Amino acid sequence: EAALRDDASLQGKVSVRFVVGTAGTITEVSVLGASGEFQACIERKFRAIRGLPILAAPRPFRQSYVFTKS
């Protein structure tokens, strides 16, 4: 949110690939379409997610977000 407030030209699509491990936590995160502090912030937010389903084996997921300054 801070990056969007600070940079009026910031817009586009960000894809986040993440792996949910067997303990129900995110074990890997990669972000496409962002860089610098914005990318690092997204990675931190995903790594902080808890309470996901416990899986028999790690499983990859991908989620895309489109954002614009409003």
- Taking strands numbered 1, 2, ... along the chain, how are they ordered across the largest sheet? 2-1-3
Q: Which structural class is indicated by helix and strand composition? A: alpha+beta
Summed up, the helix count is 2
The string of secondary-structure elements, in order, is: HEEHE
Number of strands: 3
The low-pLDDT segments are: none
Gross geometry:
elongated
Helix content: 10-25%
Span between termini: 11 Å
- Mean pLDDT across all residues, rounded? 89
Strand content: 35-45%
Largest sheet: 3 strands, antiparallel
Whole-number radius of gyration?
A: 14 Å
Compact summary:
The chain is of the alpha+beta class. 24% of the residues lie in helices and 36% in strands.
List the helices and strands and how they pair.
Blueprint: H1 2-6, E1 12-20, E2 26-32, H2 36-47, E3 59-67
